[in-house]
Write a structure and sequence with these properties.
332 residues, alpha/beta, Rossmann fold, 4-stranded parallel beta sheet, 11 helices, globular, binds pyridoxal-5'-phosphate
């Protein structure tokens, strides 16, 4: 698994820290909990997309692109990081934004990530929920090319095999840190959405000979759909890195019971989790992804699925910019 043979640009502060959370661990009275700080990747308030974009934007530069086209929800963390990466590389950024959350507040539609997209000067086009984005992306790509530009499409969440290489790298980085810190880890836990993070991580670990379990907490789809999405992408990513047989279907485990009413909708357990981590560890998580995954991990500890004596690593995928969009929706 030689990542050095793929085109790449430097965008992230790597390696991100791996830190113990002593006060959270003591509060929950279960396993020792660690946090992998991918909220500290360094670009435009950080997050998981920055690792992926090192490879997606690397390919864009190699292909001579001058305009990046991407897609996401109004409060997409992916779009914010892509808009910033385009600025850093001197490219334009065309964004297709989906109104995925029904009846959003004005704060949701104007602050947080979408505000930062505007700060980065991205050209924002808004669409109703359920739009056929494959068709719309093709139309925007044609429009840019017809105008003499060189478009490059980064898919939603940068979740294709090229983007997932970022999390293959994270898997390798984690194994190195476990060795350096002499840590025997029992489980890695993360949010899983468009699947590139989860898929890349599985390939990074399995391709390096580690059988450490990874649990993804889903944020929008039912379990069978989410697991299939991750599995398909993991197979394609494994193929790309030259380790085609390293992943099996059993390696992919998602729990989608902490979504609540839907994508981007608040839940009490997410609200509790965000305040718990802020007030015990001084850390910020987001309501859509990392907050719901945290809620899942806390519930697993309370129910005894993760127990004292174990070591759990929570992959913090970032998203704190999105918190501001939920200023009216969270109960403090
Ligand atoms: C903060 C945060 N965490 C987790 C995820 C999920 O990662 P992925 O889309 O790679 O599954 C996202 C995706 O947008 C995100 O913004």
């Amino acid at each position: 698994m030689q990542l050095s043979r793929f085109p790449r640009v430097s965008l992230a502060h790597l390696p991100t820290p791996l830190e113990h959370m002593p006060r959270l661990s003591e509060h929950l009275g279960g396993p020792d909990i660690f946090v992998k700080r991918d909220d500290c990747t360094g670009l435009a308030t950080g997050g998981n997309k920055t690792r992926k974009l090192e490879f997606s934007m690397g390919e864009a530069v190699q292909k001579g692109a001058d305009t990046i086209i991407t897609v996401g929800a109004i409060q997409s963390n992916h779009v914010r990081q892509t808009a910033a990466a385009a600025c850093k590389l001197g490219m334009k950024c065309e964004v297709l934004l989906e109104h995925r959350v029904g009846e959003p507040s004005e704060t949701y539609t104007t602050s947080g990530n979408v505000f930062l997209d505007r700060v980065f000067g991205a050209n924002l086009r808004e669409y109703p929920g359920g739009t056929d984005f494959e068709t719309e992306m093709q139309a925007v790509t044609r429009e840019i090319a017809d105008g003499g530009g060189m478009p490059y499409v980064v898919p939603g969440g940068a979740s294709n095999p090229v983007g997932a290489l970022g999390y293959v790298g994270c898997g390798i980085e984690l194994l190195e840190q476990f060795g350096e810190q002499d840590l025997q880890v029992d489980h890695i836990v993360s949010a899983t959405g468009s699947a590139g993070t989860h898929a890349g991580l599985v390939v990074g670990l399995r391709g390096s000979g580690s059988d450490l379990p990874i649990l993804g907490f889903g944020v929008n789809a039912p379990q069978d759909v989410q697991e299939e999405r991750v599995y398909k992408l993991a197979l394609a990513t494994a193929e790309l890195v030259g380790a085609p047989d390293c992943v099996s279907r059993d390696d992919i485990i998602a729990d989608c019971n902490y979504i609540g009413p839907g994508y981007g909708q608040t839940t009490e357990s997410m609200n509790e989790a965000i305040l718990m981590l802020a007030r015990l560890e001084g850390l910020l998580f987001d309501p859509v992804y990392s907050g719901k995954a945290l809620a899942g991990m806390i519930d697993y500890i309370r129910k005894g699925h993760f127990t004292a004596g174990q070591k759990i690593v929570f992959l913090h995928t970032g998203g704190s910019a999105g918190l501001f969009a939920y200023a009216d929706a969270l109960t403090l």
